Amino acid sequence: MNDIFSKNLRQLRRDKQMTQEQVAEIIGVSAQSVSRWETGATFPDILLLPELSKLYGVLVDDLFKESPEGYENYASRLLAVYETTWKHEDFLAAAREFEKMVKTDTMSPEDYRKYGLLHDYMSSVCTGKAYEFYDKSMANSKDNDPDLFYRVKRQKNMLRIARGEGQVCIDEQKKAIQDAPDNAEEYTCLVAALFNAKQYEECYVTVKNAMARFPREAMLYIWAGDVCRELKKYEEAFYYWEKHQELDSKWLDSRYAMGFCYEEIGEFRKAYEVWTTLAKILTERGGVIEAEWSREMAEKCLKRA
User: Fold this and answer.
1) In terms of residue numbers, what domain contains 282?
2) Cα–chain-centroid distance for residue 274?
């Protein structure tokens, strides 16, 4: 019989300020069984080990280690694991245990703090991964797929701006334009950076200048419409979104923007028409799920028209 195991069971129970009878009731065995485990006379059924570990706030492996630290609950122990490994599967394991506590309304204020911390950690890990894969995509597309390269660049800059690097991204884009004044994509990236940094007035001036310089650059018209919407220049916004559709009907961003904007200004009949058209286009392109969402949006607008 493992003396460390039996000693741990006894000490962990005492740390939790529980009696053998209370443990027995929770686990579903007799108090005598718990007593015999703690004295080393017998060993619990192996299927009970996960239940014991969760009850004492430790891992099953911890039960066989010298002087394991019992956590307040099993979720807290799994959080500690994630803090060590940073593995996605360990995040999910901890999140599942916290969610069980949420559903049973057994979360303390400290548990909510820890659950927030778990997601905070995961957010940082995911952001690092996003940067890593954005960089790989850009490195592999720069020479052979410029459309993808600049789309990813805008996505990465949007993430950077959300994390407080707005002015840095804007300054980098201004420098990029100085280095490549005939590259319309760099102008689009600057406009996007200004928009995402909520520098709408400068964005408005910049995008109008860029459209004058590159009148066939379709992506600029999406951003022009978006910034006009923020500035409540609605008539101008719709003009630019419609112009984008004339130049490049492949991308549907301007149609979505029109639908949301019509709703915003209370033009629900027009919003209905936009969502219905989008549903038709998406269905023709094989986007069944996306089309269903657009139809739902159309129905909601029709009820409000």
Assistant:
1) 252-305
2) 28
262 within some domain: yes
Rounded CA-CA distance 275/6 in Å is: 66
Instruction: Please classify residue 220 by burial: count the beta carbons closer than 10 Å to its beta carbon, then call 0-12 exposed, 13-18 middle and 19+ buried.
Output: buried
**Nearest one of 265, 261, 251, 202 to 222, comparing CA atoms:** 251
Final residue belonging to a domain, choices 23, 46, 69: 69
Q: In which residue ranges of the chain is pLDDT below 50?
A: 1
CB 127 within 8 A of CB 159: yes
pLDDT at 147: 93
Q: Which residues contact 54 (CB under 8 A, 6 or more apart)?
A: 74
Residue 133 structure tokens: 């894969």
pTM of the model: 0.78
One domain for residues 83 and 130: yes
- For the chain, give the longest Cα–Cα distance: 87
CA-CA distances (angstroms) from residue 106 to 7, 102, 265? 29, 6, 44
In whole angstroms, give the CA distance from residue 150 to residue 67: 55
pLDDT tens track for 5-58: 889 899 889 988 889 999 999 999 999 999 999 988 899 999 999 899 988 988
pLDDT in the model for residue 305: 85
Whether the CA torsion 278, 279, 284, 290 is positive or negative: it is positive
Last residue of a domain, one of 14, 45, 69: 69
* Closest C-alpha among 83, 36, 28 to residue 52: 28
